[in-house]
Every structure is written in C-alpha cells, then in structure tokens.
Amino acid sequence: xxxxxxxxxxxxxxxxxxxxxxxxxxxxxxxxxxxxxxxxxxxxxxxxxxxxxxxxxxxxxxxxxxxxxxxxxxxxxxxxxxxxxxxxxxxxxxxxxxxxxxxxxxxxxxxxxxxxxxxxxxxxxxxxxxxxxxxxxxxxxxxxxxxxxxxxxxxxxxxxxxxxxxxxxxxxxxxxxxxxxxxxxxxxxxxxxxxxxxxxxxxxxxxxxxxxxxxxxxxxxxxxxxxxxxxxxxxxxxxxxxxxxxxxxxxxxxxxxxxxxxxxxxxxxxxxxxxxxxxxxxxxxxxxxxxxxxxxxxxxxxxxxxxxxxxxxxxxxxxxxxxxxxxxxxxxxxxxxxxxxxxxxxxxxxxxxxxxxxxxxxxxxxxxxxxxxxxxxxxxxxxxxxxxxxxxxxxxxxxxxxxxxxxxxxxxxxxxxxxxxxxxxxxxxxxxxxxxxxxxxxxxxxxxxxxxxxxxxxxxxxxxxxxxxxxxxxxxxxxxxxxxxxxxxxxxxxxxxxxxxxxxxxxxxxxxxxxxxxxxxxxxxxxxxxxxxxxxxxxxxxxxxxxxxxxxxxxxxxxxxxxxxxxxxxxxxxxxxxxxxxxxxxxxxxx
Length: 591
Hints:
Elements (H helix, E strand, L loop, with lengths): L7 H11 L2 H5 L9 H19 L3 H7 L2 E3 L2 E3 L4 H10 L18 H14 L1 H20 L2 H13 L2 E6 L15 E5 L2 E12 L8 E8 L12 E6 L1 E3 L5 E4 L2 E6 L10 E6 L5 E5 L6 H37 L18 H33 L3 H37 L10 H8 L9 H14 L4 H20 L2 H26 L6 H30 L6 H18 L1 H17 L8
Parallel strand pairs: 3-6
Antiparallel strand pairs: 1-2, 4-5, 5-11, 5-12, 6-7, 7-12, 8-9, 10-11
Helix pairs in contact: 1-10, 1-16, 3-6, 6-7, 6-9, 6-10, 7-8, 7-9, 9-10, 9-11, 9-12, 10-11, 10-16, 10-17, 11-12, 11-13, 11-16, 13-16, 14-15, 14-16, 15-16, 15-17, 15-18, 16-17, 16-18
C-alpha cells in the first residue's frame, strides 16, 4: 500500500502558468493573496491530506459508515479528522470574508479539494457538498437565512447537503413530489429523498439540508419547484441549537465504492412536517439549485483528477517495487518499471491525469474571474468560458478516470485484483463519478445544447482560436515541438468543423445532439487537454535551466499525449459524424 504525496509542484505550475493565478491575485477581491501565500497553503494542505486523511482511506473502505435507529455513525477516526479539518480553517479557504471565509480564489480551493479527494474521496465529499450549499445560500437566500446559517457553514461547524433525487425523480426533476406547505414564517416539508451524500452523521452539531419541494399551488413541471433550507436541528434566535427537526436518515445505501460516505434515504415530515425556510422566491428552486449543482459538477471533475492521480502514484510505487524477470535489454532482474508496456500504461495514466487537472483548474479560475473581474466584459467572457468548460471538465475527467484506475489494476497484474493491495478501491470509488451530479450523457447534452447551440458556437470558436495561437508558438520552437503543433492543428481544425456541422444540422434532426453528444464531448476533452499540456510544454521550454528534471518531464509528457492520446479525437469525431443515423437505427423492440 503506497502513501499519498500531493503533487504540490505540479499543482503550483498549473495554477500559476495555466490557470492565471498571478492575474487573479491582482484583483481587489484577492489582493491579500499572492503566489507565496498560495504555495504555503498548498504545502500545509499536502501535509494534512497525507498525514490525516490518507491513513483513513482504507479504514473507511473496509469499515464504512453504519446506520441504526434513523441515525448514521461515521467511520471511526473521521470525526477527529473533521475537527482537525475545521480547526485548520480548510472549510473556509475560498469562502466570502463577509461570513468568516479566508477569501482565497476558488481555484485554490479546487487545488486543495484535489488533495482531499486523492487522499480520501469519501471524506472529501462532506465538505464538497457544504461548499455548494454555501454558494446557493449566499447567492439566493434572504439576509435572515444568511445570518442564521452561513457563518457556521463557512467555518465548517455545520455541514450542508443537496436534496434533489426522489425514487420516481432521478434526472427528471419535473417529477419531484416532496411537498412544502406554508405555515407562518416557515413551511412544513414532507417527502422522501434518496442518494443524499452525507445526509446524516455525528461530526457536527447541525446539518443544513437544501431541499427541492413543491408548494400547494405550484405549477406542474420544473417551473413549480422551490428550494428550502431544512436544518437537522432548528436554530434558536440567539443562534444556539434548538429542537430536533422532523428530518431523518431512514437508511443508507450499500454501494460499490465510497463506503465511508453515507448515501442516505432522507425522510421529511413523518411526524407532522419538517420545518423549512424558503430560499428566494417560490417556483425558482431549480435555478437556485443549479448554483450548487454547477459547483458540484466541477468539483466532481476534480474528483476524477484526484482518483486518477492516486491510482497513478499507487501504480508507480508498485512498478518500482515489484521485481519480475528480465526487461528487454537488461542483464539482471529488475523491477517491472523497466518493461516498455508498463511504462506505456504509466505514461497514459500520467498524461491524461495532467491534462484533466489543467482543464479543471482553468475552468475554476474562469469562474474566479467571472465573479470578481474588474470590468463587465472580462467577467462575461470568463463566465462563458467557465460554463463551456464545466461539462467537459466533469464528463471527460471522470470518464478517463475509469480507464486510468483500471490501468492501475492492470499494472499490478493479479495482485491488482486482490483488495489488499488497494488498487481496486480506486476503481470502485471512481465508478460513481460518471453518474452523480449529472451523468456523462447529461454533461454532453449540456455542452451541445446549452453551451454551444445557444450561442451558435461563439465561445467554442473563441477557444479554438486560442488553441491555434498556442500552435503557432509550438511551431516557432521547432524540433519536437513541431510534432505537438501538427497534432494540435489537425485535431483543433477537425473539432471546429464538427462543431459547425452539429450547430448547422441540429434543427433538421432533433435527435442529432443527443446521439452525437458524448463522442463530441470526449473529443473536445481530449483536444483541450492536449492544448493545455502543449501550453505547459511551451512554458517549460523556457524554464529548463531552473529544474531540468521537472520541466523536461512536462515536455515529454505533452509530446507523448500528442502522439498517443490525441489520435483518439479522430475516432471520437468520426463516430460523432456517423452517430446520429446508427444510434437510432434499431427499433425499440430490437434491443
């Protein structure tokens, strides 16, 4: 079992060189931040991840959370770790200083979230959902709700959840049936929610549930959904904990992975009604919840990065330790890292992980600029870029995590199939990531429908133009950089052509977007990831004298990706062009 070591130098490189951290630190909101402060924060986060969270990962997997008498008991050691988490200020890192946050860029929070998820995905899910709940309340709730809940949530003293799904309402939230009946200054909530991550635990004094429900006169469909704050314990006027609310975890799911993260069935109102408080206006709940959901989607992409990096580190450690036979050209027995095919698999894992990290960090920093930029035009453009990248960051990063964690098992050989080596846990934990917070298909349809067709591909074309600017820099450097430039040119041009084709023909064929969306999204992720690695290689070429080992590895990794991974985009785009007709060719009863 290998130890987790956060890739702090790599994370600093991506934040500073690709995600624009220096520019963010010049904004008034982040004027107290600096590259040195962020570097120090990341070093301390690395220590906490490796020293406190990582040792609990296997324990959480083997023991898991337990449920009895409508209450969840978290895995042994998690409560103590969580107390250290809030004492260290980690919960408030990128939150608004108005409510007690440290006010660092959200992209820095994303970097620490990668560390928490790589060290212990089950643990990391708890503060991740809390961050999303904070965003929704801060953006949409009235001052009274903010005053009652935000400081405790920002500090981490209270956690938060997101309650959307019901037994009959999965992705189709128009079918939500949970009721909210007005009574004085509050509502009485009744209904059942399922798949509620960290819906109950004993680590904090309170849990703040954000619940979608319908008022009595609400219109049908998604236009009749409202959002409510439903605390586990009511809060007295002086801020102290009051009576137990009528909101209980009535069971937890038995899952393939993330065993220490309790996935709860929540029942509201079994004893007369759970007290809830309306967020914003009635019937606008789904729009409000998307503030939280988009936050969760980007952070799920980070989970994909994190679990990929953990699987990669685990595989490297095993390959360096396992002695087996003579590698070609060697005269003595050595470790399996000498075998070309092992190195091929490790390079696939490494290059795709680095590409997905860059994609997710750049998406996050776009929102930092969108929320806090100096002028409206900059904020608008940054928001468009962040919204375009979010479904790719979530969908592509979690899809490739399935391949990367599987390769981690393959490198272990038969030992990878044995639970004791730990490699299998990463694959099991990763499997949910393509499903929750919107499946891969939902992300892909969001990319095509809401992000490309809606603006007729303007932001996508702007991104492609930036890719061609990088291509020019690569071509100017010559040598091995020309190989990367040629690869980038070919795929970026093809990606733009297929995007134009989808936008042009979707009206004539309403099934087209859904039929081609996933393949197009996978192509886009592959190309954008390769572009960001290529940008990193250009920067690395000017810094070789500073650290030849680190920066030469950046160039080698970018070239490997250009030659071995980027050709996948050709296949994805070819499948995109033929996908509409062949996807719909069989009749329903032929399946």
